[in-house]
Design brief:
CATH architecture of the largest domain in chain B: Orthogonal Bundle
Structural class of chain A: mainly alpha
Shape of chain B: globular
Number of strands of chain A: 0
Largest sheet of chain A: none
InterPro entries (chain B): BP-dep_ABC_trans_perm, MetI-like, MetI-like_sf
Radius of gyration of chain A: 27 Å
Helix content of chain B: over 70%
Strand content of chain B: under 5%
Shape of chain A: globular
Membrane topology (chain B): Multi-pass membrane protein
Largest interface: A-B, 99 and 95 residues
Oligomer: heterodimer
Domain ABC transmembrane type-1 (chain B): 72-264
CATH topology of chain A: MetI-like fold
CATH class of the largest domain in chain B: Mainly Alpha
Family (chain B): Belongs to the binding-protein-dependent transport system permease family.
GO biological process, one term (chain B): transmembrane transport
CATH superfamily of the largest domain in chain B: MetI-like
Strand content of chain A: under 5%
Largest sheet of chain B: none
Chain lengths: 318, 279
């Protein structure tokens, strides 16, 4: 872009010195000294504490690094990955992680879309829902976990007492330590915690849908569903793709909620991959092995996202 | 469309809204209910929504059982410094990223997005080792550094939106008067950015205040730990938690974030969408 502007500029008359524009100053990577001066305070910490450690972390996956070891760390090539292949505990936790991430992301999206569509209507008490919908976003993860532990509590929890009043259960259910119920119970908490952010983004997307199109479609006799399919959805789709992809990544990497709710129990039924890797690294001190797990997690996320996005984009082309 | 079916549709919408309100509100109300119940009431097996004997005993017990006050001060220190430093560093960078189009800007923007993808494990292990080399494990300064870096992507993202909204003509006028870029930034752009700065500061504060994982790994001694970590000490062994003080402490830990979010809600949404839509 800058090249075209310089050629279009009329040639300076002979005798007058050329104006000192930024482009005439010395540049490195397209930036002059001022720009570097402005960027460095942010670039340095990012390089030292984010890019650097990440590369270091990737390299750790190929070593036998351990906590508190006296002899030097050695390169062991792909050994970590080889043992990871047969680590059934890790793959169990991986399966739990996928079930968790897919169901939380899907439910989050559906519920958030419903709420966003409602909030986009001219309803009374809309302000209350808007305010309330932001609260889970503001709360610390740990508090959300504690709060739901109180809800699910076997004797003192409101859930059991309500269900008993409604005659739906005869005796108290131990939600968080039942093998079959723990994961669904934790998924509900994940949905509750992540819904607000998705709602806000979808609502902003809905407000960008052109109003005239809706009116035109309504005049042509299109019903609510038809208008949603033909007008709202196409306009909303890019926002939906972005937020569901991000949600999926965030959910797959989630830690605090489940740590507080169940610590991965009962019997590993809710042990998300992050919890597993955390224990491996900071309880057993197996840094290299845990880093290898992290790498596998990235790889799987990347593959799933590529497939998901490519299919959606292909649909859009047709 | 008949007016009958329209009325039904409206009623259905209100019903749905009511369900959402109930789902969103009931855990919050339950937390409050437990926090304000008298300790002897919590032992009963037939819990009620409204405390039969409202009391503040749980709050007193919470402060007795754990170093809650100290941890709140720790959180305040860590979150405030992290927010101030990250905004201080992010403002010039956001400005440069918007106003100079170069390979570095593209790479930085790409990194902001990519860094969201990495599992924390892969970040925390090397960070732990690096910080250990600098003797910054179990140090609040180390945690502040980590939060700054962790906040930066989002701070940059938000601020870029606000910088873009500043009309370039103002800056051109200043440039003609012979101002250098940094000078333009500080005397022309910065005053116009104030609302964006405040919003970004508050958001960074809330993120750091709420954060749990890094604090759990990096801070070992209870007198240095932040509030999120101290809260988990209430949980103790397998479900043996003392519910009243737990609820009271959890409620207290949420107040600052809620306060800021209430002030922030409109700005936050706009800021995010500016960064996203015009990006």
């Amino acid at each position: 872009m800058s090249a075209t502007t310089t050629t279009e500029r009329p040639a300076p008359r002979r005798g007058t010195p050329p104006p000192r524009t930024p482009s005439t100053r010395k540049r490195a990577l397209g930036l002059d000294r001022d720009a570097w001066f402005l960027l460095l305070p942010a670039l340095l910490p990012i390089l030292v504490l984010s890019v650097g450690p990440l590369l270091y972390g990737l390299s750790l996956a190929f070593t036998d690094a351990q906590a508190g070891r006296t002899e030097p760390t050695q390169w062991i090539g792909l050994d970590n990955f080889a043992s990871l292949r047969f680590d059934s505990l890790f793959w169990d936790s991986f399966r739990v992680g996928l079930v968790w991430a897919v169901s939380v992301t899907a439910l989050q999206f559906l519920l958030a879309l419903g709420l966003a569509l409602l909030l986009n209507q001219n309803l009374r008490f809309r302000w209350l829902a808007r305010t309330l919908a932001l609260v889970p976003w503001a709360m610390p993860e740990v508090v959300i976990g504690i709060m739901w532990r109180l809800v699910y509590h076997r004797d003192a929890g409101i859930l059991n007492s309500t269900l008993r009043d409604l005659q739906l259960i005869s005796e108290n259910v131990n939600w968080l330590s039942s093998l079959s119920l723990a994961l669904p119970a934790v998924i509900v908490v994940g949905v509750w915690a992540g819904m607000p952010q998705t709602t806000v983004v979808l609502l902003a997307g809905l407000q960008n849908v052109p109003h005239e199109l809706h009116e035109a479609a309504a005049l042509d006799g299109a019903g609510t569903w038809r208008r949603f399919r033909a007008v709202t959805w196409p306009a909303l789709k890019p926002v939906v793709l972005a937020i569901t992809s991000l949600n999926f990544i965030w959910n797959f990497n989630s830690f605090g909620l489940v740590y507080v709710l169940t610590q991965g129990g009962p019997g590993g039924e809710t042990r998300l991959p992050m919890l597993f890797a955390y224990e491996e690294a900071f309880r057993y001190g197996q840094f290299g092995y845990a880093a290898a797990m992290g790498m596998v997690m990235i790889a799987v996320i990347a593959v799933l996202l590529t497939v998901f996005l490519r299919n959606r984009l292909k649909e859009a082309d047709q | 469309m008949s007016s009958l079916s329209r009325t039904c549709g409206r009623a259905g919408q209100y019903l749905a809204l009511l369900c959402y309100l109930a789902f969103l509100a009931f855990p919050l109300l339950w937390l409050l209910s437990i926090a304000f119940k008298a300790p002897q009431e919590l032992g009963t097996t037939d819990p009620t929504w409204l405390p039969r004997h409202p009391s503040l005993d749980n709050f007193r017990d919470a402060f007795d059982q754990q170093p809650l006050w100290g941890s709140a001060l720790n959180s305040l220190l860590v979150a405030t410094s992290a927010a101030l430093i990250s905004v201080l560093v992010a403002v010039p960078a956001a400005y440069a990223l918007v106003r100079y189009r170069s390979a570095v800007s593209k790479a930085a923007t790409g990194w902001i997005l990519v860094s969201q993808m990495f599992p924390f494990v892969l970040v925390i292990i090397p960070l732990f080792l690096v910080l250990k080399n600098f003797q910054l494990i179990n140090s609040q300064f180390g945690l502040i550094l980590v939060y700054v870096v962790w906040n930066l992507p989002f701070a940059l993202w938000m601020l870029q939106g606000y910088v873009r909204a500043v009309p370039a003509s103002l800056e051109e006028a200043a440039a003609i008067d012979g101002c250098s870029r940094p000078r333009i930034l500080f005397s022309v752009v910065l005053p116009l950015l104030t609302p964006g700065l405040v919003a970004t500061l508050m958001f960074s504060f809330v993120t750091a205040w709420n954060e749990f994982f890094f604090a759990l790994v990096l801070l070992k001694s209870p007198e240095k730990q932040t509030m999120s970590v101290i809260l988990t000490h209430f949980l103790g062994a397998e479900g043996a938690a003392d519910l009243g003080p737990l609820a009271a402490a959890a409620f207290l830990a949420t107040i600052p974030s809620l306060l800021f979010f209430a002030l922030l809600q409109r700005r936050l949404v706009n800021g995010m969408m500016n960064g996203a839509v015009k990006g």
